[in-house]
Amino acid sequence: MISKAQNNFNENNLAVSLFSRLTAFTLAEVLITLGIIGVVAALTIPTLMANHRKQVVETRLAKFYSTMNQAIKMAEVDYGDVKQWDEFVQGFEKDEDGNPTTSKALAWFEKYLKPYLKYTKYEVDSNFEGKVVTYFPDGSLALISSSSIIFYPKASDYALGERDDGLISRNADLSGTKYFTFMFAPNSESCHTVGKGIEPYMCSWDGKKETLLSSSSLGCKEKVSNERAYCTALIQMNGWKIPKDYPLRF
Fold first, then answer.
1. 225 C-beta neighbours (distance < 10 Å), count
2. Which of 109-118, 161-170, 228-237 has the lowest mean pLDDT?
3. How open is the CA angle 238-242-248, to the nearest 5 degrees?
4. Residues 130 and 104: beta-carbon distance below 8 Å
5. What is the torsion angle, in degrees rounded to the nearest 10, for the CA atoms of residue 244, residue 245, residue 248 and residue 250?
6. Which residue stretches of the chain are H helix?
7. Among 19, 95, 151, 242, whose CB has the most other CB atoms within 10 angstroms?
8. Taking a C-beta distance cutoff of 8 angstroms, is the pair 119, 155 a contact?
């Protein structure tokens, strides 16, 4: 004879068994769920990664701009108004045989910027008019000379490319996404930098936002004849945030 307690135990087990059967997932259901998760991930992860890359660029552009100009302000305390500094020139000093020796930009960098910057190391890049390659603690890098100042938010993106004429140059296709162009020319009206420190490259700019986008040579657009030097100014105009209608993809 089955006791009342035993009967209740059997009924409870039966209920648990029935509940388990009702709530368990079949293999097909599990596979479908995983498939849906995979599709959602494939659609969202690239966007998330692109947004992260944009945030890194925005943060480091703003920091670079602030850091460099703070350094210039501190140097002005020691060396006077920026418009009175030694001329900032490019290229190399040469020996008696005409061979390049030391970078002209290096002496200027070591006098006016080095004492006021936090960096991990610096060196001369022999391929870029004697530019001083400066590595920063946040993982970014800048190529500094009077012709232009090239900033890489990620130092790992810094690379050389070979032109058709056999000379070594930057890969201009990376301009506006991997690297950004600044200028130090405190006496130049055409570059909109009179009396200023380091600013986004705006040489030969007519002051119209549309030109930053439409210039066939320097505009921030897919195809240009030179490089997309105006992209930096376009981002600065938006508070160092990449505009939603930015014409280039990250």
1. 10
2. 161-170
3. 130
4. yes
5. 20
6. 4-23, 27-79, 104-112, 209-214, 231-237
7. 151
8. no
Q: In one letter, which amino acid is 193?
A: T
**Edge-to-edge strand list for the sheet holding 141-144:** 121-125, 131-135, 141-144, 149-152, 180-184, 198-200
DSSP helix, strand, coil percent of the chain (3-state; round to 5): 45, 15, 40
Residue 165: C-alpha distances to residues 15, 149, 161, 162, 212 (Å): 82, 23, 12, 8, 29
Q: What is the DSSP letter of 93?
A: E
| Paired sense of beta strands 198-200 and 168-169, if any | unpaired
> What integer pLDDT is reported at residue 104 of this predicted model?
87
132-169 tens-digit pLDDT: 999 999 999 999 988 889 999 999 998 754 444 444 45
Rounded Cα distance between 235 and 176, Å, is 10
Residues linked to residue 122 through DSSP beta bridges, in sequence order: 134
What is the C-alpha to C-alpha distance for residues 52 and 83, in angstroms, rounded to an integer? 39
Q: What are phi and psi of 188, to 5 degrees?
A: -105, 115
